[in-house]
Amino acid sequence: MCNKEGDTIKLRPYQRELINDIKHSMIAGHRSIVSVLGCGGGKSVIQAEIARSATGKHNRVLFLVHRKELCEQITDTFTSQDVDMELCSVSMVQTVSRRLDSIPVPKIIMTDEAHHSTAKTYKKIYEAFPDALRLGFTATPCRLNKGGLGEVYDDLITSVSTKWLIDNNYLSPYKYYSVKLADTSGLHIKAGDYKADEVAELMQNKEIYGETVKQWERLAKNKKTIAYCASVEAAEETAEQFQQAGYKAASLSGSTSKELRSQIMQDFRDSKLTILTNCELFGEGLDVPDCECTVLLRPTQSLTLYIQQSMRSMRYMPGKTAIIIDHVGNCYQHGLPDDDREWTLEPKKKQENMVKIRECPMCYAVYPPTQQRCPYCGYKAVKEIQRKEKEVVEIDLVEMKRQDDIRNTRLSDAILETWSQVVEFQKLHKYKFAWCIRYAALHDIPIPQKYNNMRRIIGV
Ligand SMILES: [Zn+2]
Predict the structure, then answer these.
(1) Helices H, strands E: what count in the chain?
(2) Around ion ligand 1, which residues have CB less than 5 A away?
(3) Is the pLDDT of residue 22 over 80?
(4) Residues 360-364: contacts with CB within 8 Å, 24+ apart?
(5) Which of 249, 295, 356, 397 is the most buried (most CB within 10 A)?
């Protein structure tokens, strides 16, 4: 992932630029700066360079993380990049806040995942060392309860966007499918996100488990996959459904023992496992570059969580296109992973309509509304659907039943099962004949051999 040259790290140009921007902000008099860099932008490399340079000048650095696993990971990265660990302590925020009297006074406090910075424990630490320079890092500088980070930071620096990282081969491109299996509209919100027990109950549903496997077989069969579930039970049940369907799957949660967890992770890296389901894990810091698919089974109001989870399969690998299968409609809440987002330190104003996406009724792809045709299957949205765009065309697979009279069926409700039904439907709606070929190929409906040539031309 990082370009090593000799023993010291070689920064990418945009990473070097971000460090310069931080320096300029300091020169301008800011003492508390939060930097924004998309997932996969190489945040830890930048942090290591800053810590290396600071400790090289005999400055003491306190680096705050909020998860134990990240402590170990960051210590490893820093050590390998010549940070003087005598002068740099990488610590859990909870631990530091309890030992404020006994730790050496830092010159710089660096905060990882800085969207947590306004929490009490962090503020207690900042207040204990008022003279320390504060540097925060995050991909999503916003708080779950919509407040801004301005309470803690006085400058915000942005770097390259997710789109830029994809275009420049630092992240893999992706295909996003929304196959909604659960209705989240009845859920209540507590502390900024859906109530955990209600979500768990909603997602614990036999039909959802079954449909999850089916959709995965249709869209991402045999691709190395991480599924994010709403509860430990749901993670276990989902893994079991995959196993019963003949795939190698395992589930992990916070209560899995450390030994078993590292064994399962190793198996996943070694491709002895194809599907890894989990609850409350791997938002951050999981590095499995050949993971190609993410399945979202946990509805969330948190943009941070959404970005971290949906992008987990987008680590760059030549030729890879990540597949994201969203079963809970998170993209309607948050948009697509690489949407341009404007960040400020101010509290977020209530947004009127977050939905800036179009959904393909043919293949369930989700894509920007500026495109007239589905970029995955070529289907052109018909007028009827375009008009309804604002209210979002939802396709509830659980409710989908074979309709006998396809003439009266709206396109998004139709399930066509044979070639002749597909052709009949095409004539009825006056689509081009190529539509039949695309539709049938996408849905595994046998296509008569005489159209083989046409299939080659269309490329399906
Ligand atoms: Zn499509």
Answers:
(1) 16, 18
(2) 360, 362-363, 365, 374, 376-377, 379
(3) yes
(4) 361/385, 361/393, 361/395, 361/411, 361/412, 362/438, 362/439, 362/442, 363/177, 363/442, 364/177, 364/178, 364/179, 364/395
(5) 295
Q: For residue 293, how far is its CA from the centre of ligand 1 (angstroms)? A: 18
Which pair of tokens denotes residue 119? 């929490």
Q: How far is the CA of 311 from the centre of ligand 1 (A)?
A: 21
The confidence score (pLDDT) of residue 284 equals: 55
Ligand 1 geometric centre to CA of 109 (Å): 48
CA of 359 to the centre of ligand 1 (A): 8
d(CA 189, CA 301): 9
* Under 8 Å between Cβ of 442 and 452: no
Query: Is-same-fold flag (3-160; 167-339)?
Result: yes
Q: Does domain 167-339 have CATH number 3.40.50.300?
A: yes
Listed residue (381, 385, 392) closest to 356, CA to CA: 392
Q: How far is CA 395 from CA 3, 362, 363, 426, 435, in A?
A: 44, 10, 11, 20, 20
- Spacing, Cα 379 to ligand 1 middle (Å): 5
Say if CB 136 and CB 101 are below 8 A apart.
no
Enter the DSSP assignment of 337: T
| pLDDT, mean of residues 309-337 | 93
Instruction: State which amino acid sits at residue 399.
Output: E
Interval 107-148: pLDDT, tens: 999 999 999 898 899 999 999 999 999 999 999 888 766 668
For the CA atoms of the chain, what is the radius of gyration? Answer: 24
Which residue has better confidence, 388 or 376?
Answer: 376
Q: What are the Cα distances from residue 13, in Å, to 160, 331, 401?
A: 11, 31, 54
Question: How far, in Å, is the centroid of ligand 1 from the Cα of 428?
Answer: 19
Largest CA-CA distance found in the chain, in angstroms, rounded: 81
359 neighbors 211 (Cβ within 8 angstroms): no
Rounded distance from Cα 141 to ligand 1 centre (Å)? 33
Q: What's the gap in Å between 440 CA and the centre of ligand 1?
A: 12
- Tell me how far apart the alpha carbons of residues 179 and 359 are, in angstroms, rounded to a whole number: 10
Determine the average pLDDT of the residues in 159-174.
94
Spacing, Cα 447 to ligand 1 middle (Å): 19
**Structural contact between residues 39 and 9, judged by C-beta atoms closer than 8 angstroms:** no
* Degrees, nearest 5: CA angle 84-53-135: 100
Contact (CB, 8 A) for 4 and 42:
no
Planar angle of CA 200, 206, 208, nearest 5 degrees: 70
For the domain spanning 3-160, the CATH number is: 3.40.50.300
What residue segments make up the domains of the chain, in order of their start? Answer: 3-160, 167-339, 401-458
Evaluate if residue 423 carries a pLDDT over 90.
Answer: no
